[in-house]
């Protein structure tokens, strides 16, 4: 099989390389190009943020990495390279239900969601669920699994873990369920944590606690994090690098400071301006007119063209601009910044 | 000059939901969702109402409109220079007054009936209040659609054909249909994308300027509230803990809960520093609130007195109300002190 190769020099510092991935849903109405050109890489112990409005393809990107894209979705092209110490695996080449990806999920890559009940089962106690995950991936010793479970629960800030292990998810508050889900995801020491809007439904006070927790655990466990959100404030808070997505494509990609202080793509620029910023009151917000379209049989053009005030006729609506490195480690997909 | 009477004055508002137990549905206790809340709204202003989920914001909003029956309190609405206590009215007497106060909801998906066209949805309140019919009614609906930025050609479409932002515009048009004076907007932008959120906030501001609307604006996003509100009230476990003009509240909070809320907001740019006050635990259950100051189990400044004595709601400086025993002494940090802008 071709999915495993030797790890190259340059990949040593990189954990995950996502290269021009396209994931489409073949529907009766047409082809929905949920992810249509996504590239980024995540370094070891680095936090990459994906920011984009709803429908931009953030979750499907995460599902593609985990190989849990629901039917009728399929990865059509691209590479998702997971670099182990001694070899590299292209996740797109693995069988979706095969043993390899199953062992990678949970052990190498774990995921947390906005809705904790996506990963927690309502009919098993918190303790049971975490213990089972540990027994599956980490140790066969039940005593040790029990000890790790209690340790994880207290590390994520759940008070009285000895009692909590015997409770069911519905007995916990929203914030506590979120913590239990994180405990389960991290119980097997994953190399990469994918967090898909884990704090979107929470109050700011609880969000602040959870973000702090993820940062702490990242240091303790030396993990990389892929953090998905539509909240620029959360990005500013936790990320080293940012990929801005619009309509299935990464339109800008760079360090968090480049994205906030030197944004280049018109969408990034406008998104930053449309957000009310506490402590910087403006008279009027600069909204982006129009709506995010649905990428169903999308025309071959820049995805932002209908809402872009700088669109160039005869140019932006006839071809898709390429994602080009316009400055060191700063990539943009826009004809204002490259000929390609 | 005498002070103008406010458009709305709410006094000692309470809403207790009974907790029923067992087969006989015996009342085993009460959820004190709103417990002695007082505030006023001047005509044309926006009062923001913030607090963690479960603090009672929606219940206040619904009580003000008498969409649910308050347990106790006064709700005085001034109309044509006459003030009426809505609580003193029978349901029947209330009906003609209802058109003056309307609500906009958070969820633009569940708040619109999927079987009704845009025309039906927006005309419903006009019909209920017998304000127009026939061609006049349709003209009025078309006009409202234009006012909120919807294309009139979509008059006979169903809600599912619209995006979240457009649905919220439909909800706003429906709320405006009866020419209300007061609008309770319950998290109207929380479910929307950032770029669309800005569109709707701008629309709400334009409508306010054009029609002199008064908003009770409920939200949990402190950035959004700072942007839209003239004054802000902070709620915790069914009670107001602080209320002040927006700038004053954000710069000089007088209640430890407000200080903590402000510090929890994510920073606006990567190089900004923010001092976090980490609150212990979670918001108390209004069925079993703590003794004394409800905030004491989470408060970093709590003293023995806080466990026993309920703090008084009082005016700590002109127009600035707070309910903490130590509002006058504590040196709490506002946005300016919590955040250090990046050195440039
Ligand atoms: N299971 C699915 N079947 C069909 N279309 C889907 C499915 N999941 C997502 N999509 C579509 O793919 C696009 C991207 O969705 P998603 O990745 O969930 O966006 P985001 O997470 O950025 O909000 C959207 O247009 C969405 O409607
Ligand atoms: N119909 C109801 N019956 C019983 N309890 C309710 C009802 N509506 C709200 N509550 C309770 O009242 C409290 C305040 O709720 P709510 O006003 O919705 O808060 P918020 O809008 O601030 O999130 C919560 O504890 C909630 O569970
Ligand atoms: S490619 Fe053209 S339409 Fe697209 S963002 Fe750039 S200028 Fe705007
Ligand atoms: S009264 Fe006491 S417990 Fe309550 S907010 Fe003030 S200091 Fe904190
Ligand atoms: Mg998503
Ligand atoms: Mg509410």
Range of strand content of chain A: 25-35%
Class based on secondary structure composition and strand pairing of chain B = alpha/beta
CATH class of the largest domain in chain B: Alpha Beta
Kindly name the structural category of chain A: alpha/beta
Unreliable stretches of chain B (pLDDT < 50, length at least 5) are: none
**Low-confidence regions of chain A:** none
Distance between the termini of chain A: 35 Å
Our count of helices of chain A gives 10
- Tell me how many strands of chain A there are: 13
Question: How would you characterize the overall build of this protein?
Answer:
The complex is a heterodimer of chains A (340) and B (344). Chain A is α/β, with parallel strands linked by helices and 340 residues long. Chain A is 30% helix and 26% strand. The two termini of chain A are 35 Å apart. Chain B is of the alpha/beta class and 344 residues long. In chain B, strand 1 and strand 2 (26-41) form a beta hairpin. In chain B, 47% of the residues are buried. Chain B has 11 helices and 14 strands. In chain B, the strands form 3 sheets. In chain B, strands 6-7-8-3-9-10-13-12 form an 8-stranded mixed sheet, sandwiched between helices. Chain B has helices spanning 57-64, 91-98, 118-128, 134-147, 164-176, 194-211, 222-228, 246-251, 256-264, 304-308, 335-338, and strands at residues 8-21, 26-41, 46-50, 72-79, 82-85, 101-104, 182-186, 214-218, 231-236, 239-245, 273-274, 314-317, 320-322, 339-340. Chain B has 2 domains: 8-100 and 181-322, P-loop containing nucleotide triphosphate hydrolases (Rossmann fold), CATH 3.40.50.300; 114-179. The termini of chain B are far apart. Chains A and B meet through helix 7, helix 8, helix 9 and helix 10 of A and helix 5, helix 6, helix 7 and helix 9 of B. Bound molecules: adenosine-5'-diphosphate (2 copies), iron/sulfur cluster (SF4) (2 copies) and magnesium ion (2 copies).
């Amino acid at each position: 099989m071709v999915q495993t190769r030797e790890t190259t020099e340059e990949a040593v510092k990189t954990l995950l390389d996502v290269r021009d991935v396209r994931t489409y849903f073949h529907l009766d109405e047409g082809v929905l190009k949920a992810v249509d050109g996504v590239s980024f890489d995540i370094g070891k112990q680095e936090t990459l943020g994906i920011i984009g409005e709803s429908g931009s393809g953030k979750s499907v990107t995460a599902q593609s990495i985990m190989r849990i894209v629901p039917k009728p979705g399929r990865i059509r092209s691209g590479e998702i390279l997971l670099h182990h110490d001694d070899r590299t695996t292209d996740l797109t080449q693995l069988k979706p239900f095969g043993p390899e990806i199953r062992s990678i999920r949970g052990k190498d890559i774990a995921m947390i969601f906005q809705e904790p009940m996506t990963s927690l089962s309502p009919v098993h106690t918190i303790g049971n669920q975490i213990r089972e995950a540990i027994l599956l991936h980490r140790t066969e010793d039940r005593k040790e699994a029990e000890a790790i479970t209690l340790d994880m629960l207290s590390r994520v800030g759940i008070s009285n873990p000895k009692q909590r292990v015997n409770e069911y998810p519905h007995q916990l508050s929203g914030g506590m369920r979120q913590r239990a889900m994180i405990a389960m995801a991290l119980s097997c020491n994953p190399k990469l944590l994918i967090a898909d809007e884990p704090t979107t439904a929470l109050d700011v006070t609880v969000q602040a606690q959870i973000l702090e927790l993820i940062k702490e655990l990242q240091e303790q466990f030396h993990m990389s994090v892929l953090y998905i959100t539509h909240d620029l404030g959360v990005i500013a808070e936790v990320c080293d690098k940012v990929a801005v997505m619009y309509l299935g494509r990464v339109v800008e990609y760079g360090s968090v400071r480049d994205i906030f202080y030197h944004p280049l793509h018109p969408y990034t620029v406008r998104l930053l301006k449309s957000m009310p910023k506490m402590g910087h009151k403006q008279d009027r917000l600069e909204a982006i007119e129009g709506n995010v379209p649905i990428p169903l049989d999308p025309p071959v053009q820049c995805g932002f063209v209908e809402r872009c005030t700088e669109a160039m006729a005869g140019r932006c609506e006839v071809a898709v601009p390429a994602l080009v490195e316009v400055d060191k480690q700063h990539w943009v997909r826009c004809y204002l910044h490259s000929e390609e | 000059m005498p002070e103008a009477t406010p458009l709305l004055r709410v006094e000692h508002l309470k809403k207790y939901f009974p907790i029923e137990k067992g087969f006989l549905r015996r009342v085993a206790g009460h959820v004190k969702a709103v417990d002695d809340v007082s505030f006023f709204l001047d005509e044309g202003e926006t009062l923001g109402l913030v607090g963690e989920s479960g603090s009672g914001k929606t219940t206040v909003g619904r009580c003000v409109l008498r969409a649910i029956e308050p347990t106790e309190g006064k709700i005085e609405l001034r109309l044509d220079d006459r003030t009426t206590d809505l609580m003193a009215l029978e349901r029947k007497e209330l009906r003609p007054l209802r058109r003056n106060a309307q609500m906009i909801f958070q969820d633009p998906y569940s708040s619109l009936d999927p079987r009704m066209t845009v025309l039906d949805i927006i005309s419903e309140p006009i019909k209920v209040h017998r304000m127009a019919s026939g061609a006049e009614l349709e003209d009025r609906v078309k006009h409202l659609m234009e006012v909120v930025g919807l294309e009139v050609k979509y008059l006979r479409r169903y809600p599912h054909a619209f995006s979240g932002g457009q649905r919220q515009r439909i909800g706003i048009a429906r709320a405006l249909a009866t020419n209300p004076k007061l609008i309770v907007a319950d998290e109207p932008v929380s479910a929307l994308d950032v770029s669309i959120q800005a569109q709707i906030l701008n629309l709400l501001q334009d409508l306010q300027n054009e029609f002199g609307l008064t908003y009770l604006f409920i939200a949990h996003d402190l950035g959004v509230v700072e942007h839209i509100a003239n004054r802000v009230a902070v709620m915790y476990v069914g009670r107001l803990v602080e209320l002040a003009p927006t700038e004053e509240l954000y710069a000089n909070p007088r209640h430890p809960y407000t200080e903590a809320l402000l510090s929890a907001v994510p920073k606006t740019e990567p190089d900004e520093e923010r001092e976090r006050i980490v609150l212990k635990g979670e918001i108390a259950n209004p069925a079993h609130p703590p003794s004394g100051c409800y905030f004491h189990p989470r408060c970093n400044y709590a003293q023995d007195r806080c466990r026993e004595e309920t703090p008084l709601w009082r005016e700590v400086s002109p127009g600035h109300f707070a309910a903490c025993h130590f509002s006058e002494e504590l040196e709490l940090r506002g946005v300016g002190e919590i955040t250090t802008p990046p050195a440039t």
